[in-house]
Design brief:
The protein has 73 residues and is mainly beta. The protein has strands at 7-9, 24-30, 37-44, 49-52, 65-71. The protein is 0% helix and 40% strand. A hairpin with a 4-residue loop joins β3 (37-44) and β4 (49-52).
Length: 73
């Protein structure tokens, strides 16, 4: 929960370092928004919110699970 049309709220176990996930891909694997892949443009460690490059078709919510893949160019 806490995601918007262009952000995704990561789990509390996510890194607290700003831009730690920048240029990585986030894949929504299950739940609302499943099968969507986006590039992370920025990440705020204190809030655990990542901003993505393209708006979600279905905004991830608390039923969504995700994977973060390595950096993409």
């Amino acid at each position: 929960s806490g995601s918007t049309s262009t952000t995704i709220k990561l789990a509390t176990a996510a890194s607290s370092a700003d831009d730690y996930y920048k240029d990585s891909a986030v894949v929504v694997s299950t739940g609302t928004g499943a099968k969507q892949v986006r590039k992370i443009l920025s990440y705020v460690g204190t809030t655990r919110v990542a901003t993505v490059d393209v708006a979600w078709v279905s905004t991830p919510d608390n039923t969504s699970e995700y994977l973060i893949l390595g950096r993409i160019v």
